[in-house]
């Protein structure tokens, strides 16, 4: 998708900024409405721009406006640009998300709210049932729990913030991850307790499940999908393909590993719980490592700027 940027700037910056934006090949359309903004007061510039030119527009906007409080930017998607004279330029656009869009999306998905905790908890309940199920219902439980629980975004927030040196965002990402997964572990423990109390499962059934053993004792065949899924997840974030974000979480073992911690603790299997924790940490390390490398390369080669906010 292409972008529509709505910039509010002081009147003193408008002419110079318009000249610079109009010179950018990636800017398809530029409209100025003088003095119509009341908060912040100023002129409004509507910029229809290709993805590959958004960073250049934002760099020019930041350079033109001396005080950050005088600048306001809203981003949105344009379904298509129809500009026959510039069709070749439009066709050569690329798929890139803005730093601000990535951070905003991760902040929204990973914020500690009632909805976030409920989805994490429900994902943990479903996954725990899968830990002691037969192969087919187990696969359904693992896939559905990965789709339901928003477990990837708070983790991915950490490497993005590290690359951009936004230390308060690092803290928020870590806290969101720990709180969300702690609630998932609690729900997993309560679910396993209920299954054992109802006579529908046992500590032996949990420890003897083949997939539990794969989670607890990962080999190369388990590491490679996890590492690839972690990289795929951060690529999707950077490429603005959030609708496919559940795919990497399905391939990772973060949700089952967290559920295994709770289920093992309530059945008195401390060693198995520790092995689940090890797998959980390993997959998070994959996400952080892949994110730092990819986001670092994106900053160096593509964006070349810090977020405006």
Which SSEs are present, and which pair or pack?
Elements: E1 2-9, H1 11-22, E2 27-38, E3 41-49, H2 54-64, E4 72-78, H3 87-91, H4 99-110, H5 114-131, H6 135-148, H7 153-164, H8 167-197, H9 203-208, H10 210-216, H11 220-238, H12 246-251, H13 254-266, H14 270-303
Antiparallel strand pairs: 1-3, 1-4, 2-3
Helix pairs in contact: 1-2, 4-7, 5-6, 5-8, 5-13, 7-8, 7-14, 8-13, 11-14, 13-14
Question: Would you write up a description of this structure?
Answer:
This protein has 309 residues and is an alpha+beta fold. It contains 14 helices and 4 strands. The protein has helices at 11-22, 54-64, 87-91, 99-110, 114-131, 135-148, 153-164, 167-197, 203-208, 210-216, 220-238, 246-251, 254-266, 270-303; strands at residues 2-9, 27-38, 41-49, 72-78. The two termini are 23 Å apart.
Q: What is the gist of this entry?
A:
The chain is α+β, with helices and mostly antiparallel strands and 309 residues long. It is built from 14 helices and four strands.
């Amino acid at each position: 998708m292409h972008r529509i940027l709505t910039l509010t700037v002081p009147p003193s910056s408008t002419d110079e900024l318009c000249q610079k934006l109009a010179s950018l090949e990636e800017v398809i359309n530029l409209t100025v409405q003088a003095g119509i903004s009341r908060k912040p007061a100023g002129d409004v510039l509507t910029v229809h721009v290709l993805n590959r030119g958004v960073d250049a527009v934002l760099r020019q906007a930041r350079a033109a406006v001396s005080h950050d409080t005088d600048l306001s930017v809203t981003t949105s998607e344009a379904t298509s640009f129809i500009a026959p004279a510039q069709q070749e330029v439009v066709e050569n656009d690329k798929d890139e998300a803005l730093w601000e869009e990535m951070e905003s999306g991760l902040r929204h998905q990973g914020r500690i709210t009632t909805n976030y905790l409920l989805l994490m908890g429900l994902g943990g309940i479903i996954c725990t049932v899968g830990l002691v199920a037969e192969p087919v219902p187990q696969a359904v439980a693992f896939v559905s729990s990965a789709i339901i629980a928003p477990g990837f975004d708070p983790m991915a927030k950490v490497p993005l913030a590290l690359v951009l040196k936004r230390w308060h965002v690092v803290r928020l990402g870590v806290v969101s991850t720990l709180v969300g997964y702690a609630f998932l572990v609690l729900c997993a423990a309560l679910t396993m307790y209920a299954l054992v109390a109802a006579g529908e499962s046992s500590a032996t059934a949990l420890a003897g499940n083949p997939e539990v053993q794969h989670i607890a004792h990962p080999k190369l065949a388990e590491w490679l999908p996890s590492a690839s899924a972690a990289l795929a997840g951060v690529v999707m974030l950077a490429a603005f393909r959030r609708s496919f974000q559940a795919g990497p979480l399905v391939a990772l073992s973060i949700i089952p590993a967290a559920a295994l911690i709770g289920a093992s603790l309530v059945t008195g299997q401390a060693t198995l719980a520790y092995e689940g924790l090890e797998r959980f940490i390993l997959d998070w390390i994959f996400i952080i490592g892949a994110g730092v490398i990819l986001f670092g390369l994106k900053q160096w080669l593509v964006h070349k700027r810090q977020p405006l906010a």
